[in-house]
Design goal:
The chain is mainly beta. A hairpin with a 6-residue loop joins strand 3 and strand 4. Helices cover 9% and strands 46% of the residues. It has two domains: 121 residues, no CATH class; 120 residues, no CATH class.
């Protein structure tokens, strides 16, 4: 900008140099302010697109919405994919979709032949003349980790948020516990049980599986009344039969109530009250405060 080194300038030359820099700054400042104060749709194109390696990203800005889209056309896969985000004054909506090229589907005889998760497979049912009676197309669902039937030529999920609430379409995988709460009740969903409680936290209804040694061995239903400290009614499937009674059997594992290997053994280990249906012997036993008695069997004949 200057022909002479600043360190070698006299006062008059330095003053001139400063004035030149100030004038340049003022010009830049005015241009910047004009650009900021006059931003409108005339300053932007309707859309902006970038493409590379079978990928495409698009952005569109209008007065009523902002829209974005990212798409992929994978030449090595029978599935193409795209996702969109749309924001308006009333809602935010996202869509993620996969489109299937059904013409490239590989025909197989059974699901055991489906091995490549990037492919679309088809199983056809034909008559003796080779006419197609029915056909099903399958794709691999990464979320559920299983092969699923295609409905149409695409799959998609949608999430929409408005002032009134949320709308969701598609499969959901949640890692962690979930609580659904209303004014008087709330429901908790855990990995091994579903619990319905009143506003004070008292369990009224519970579905689950007793996970002894990390195994879902004993599915059960709890039915509660009153405060949470009182005993709950319990229906639990054990190895050899079904218990209906109080919840005293819950903390035991084994073939029979109380963790025993026979319905009448070790009565002292189970002081609860209930009825046990022994599927092995087709007999029914009553339990009451450590006493066990047989009250029925499958040998009865009516009529």
């Amino acid at each position: 900008m200057f022909d002479k080194d600043i360190s070698k300038m006299d006062f008059k030359e330095l003053r001139s140099a400063v004035q030149t820099l100030y004038d340049a700054y003022e010009i830049m400042r005015r241009k910047y302010e004009d650009a900021i104060n006059n931003l409108d749709s005339d300053n932007f194109s309707d859309g902006y697109t970038v493409e590379q390696n079978n990928m495409k990203a698009q952005v569109q800005i209008t007065a009523d919405a902002i829209k974005t889209m990212v798409s992929k056309a994978d030449l090595k896969s029978a599935l193409s994919a795209y996702s969109t985000l749309k924001q308006t004054a009333d809602a935010i909506e996202t869509v993620v979709s996969k489109g299937a090229s059904l013409g490239d589907a590989e025909e197989v005889n059974s699901s055991s032949e489906m091995v490549d998760t990037d492919k679309v497979y088809v199983i056809r049912n034909t008559d003796e003349d080779g006419n197609i009676l029915s056909e099903k197309y399958y794709y691999y669902n990464d979320l559920s980790e299983e092969w699923q039937v295609l409905s149409g030529d695409s799959i998609y999920t949608l999430f929409e948020q408005t002032a009134e609430g949320f709308k969701l379409r598609g499969n959901v995988l949640i890692s962690g516990d979930v609580t659904l709460k209303s004014l008087a009740w709330y429901t908790k969903m855990f990995g091994d049980k579903l619990v319905l409680c009143d506003g004070n936290g008292n369990v009224k209804l519970e579905f689950g599986a007793n996970t002894i040694f990390d195994k879902f061995e004993y599915p059960y239903i709890f039915i509660g009344a009153g405060e949470s400290g009182t005993k709950k009614g319990c229906i639990e499937k054990m190895q050899k039969g079904l218990w209906i009674g109080d919840s005293s059997v819950y903390n035991y594992e084994g073939e029979y109530p109380g963790g025993n290997t026979a319905p009448t053994d070790g009565a002292e280990t189970l002081l609860g009250t209930g009825i046990f249906f022994d599927f092995e012997s087709s007999r029914i036993f009553a339990y009451k405060s450590g006493l066990i008695s047989e009250i029925g069997s499958g040998n009865a004949v009516f009529g």
